[in-house]
Amino acid sequence: MITGRDVVIYFSVKYAGDWSKIYNAMQARENFEEEDVLTTVGGLRCQVVTIIDENYPAMLKRIYKPPFALFYYGDLSLSYELDSTLAVVGSRECSDYGLKMTTLITSELVNRGLTIISGLAKGIDAAAHLAAMNNKGKTIAVLGSGIDNCYPRENFDLYNEVKLHHLVMSEYPGDTAPDREHFPWRNRIIAALAKGVFVAEAHRKSGTLITVGYALYLGRDVFVLPHPADTDTSCNRLIKDGAILIESAQDIIDELNQNVGESELKGAPKQ
What we know:
The protein contains eleven helices and nine strands. The chain is of the alpha/beta class.
């Protein structure tokens, strides 16, 4: 006997995570074979949480077009810790300065009890995930490809480590190929699951600015690392427009402590 949950998963897989197609199929009460549904659900290699499940991350229900299903590996409870989760985002083709400061600041944030969420892309994302893990902290990776399709391939070892010991999630099932529209779309999830967003580096017309837009829409704090004036960056413009200038991890901690008790952010490092 199939359930409504099974049907949500079935259409999410059938339409490869495409929100509009899934919505239209359910609205039209599209026909399906019960055997096909059971085969699809039973054939998943990963775990899945649907929008009708009690353990679906509550903050995702507040975003524009919340995912009908999230496919994941690891500890889903990490996605519930809004007050102690910070998004770290930035350019794929980043500078040595951006990498250095991402590693330094992220390492200290983890040592102060924060969980780091990012998109597993090369550059700033990868540096943030690695800094979290190297400091015995926790990290969440949100993919723009299928949950079983690591992109870019150069981050495969990183993907496996997050998958085994942290949390990796995607609204795209199985081996769904990466698509240029998937990456900015997944940024709404990153912004929703974090207390604030730290922009370590962002080139002009960068996809990072889409994450900032979602963060502002959701009322999240936006923290930005300043860059030299003669570089291709949107960081300084964000600061001029009202983002919080960050020179150290302590700057972020101080801002977050205005809304969160110090005991939550200044405890011992996670083991």
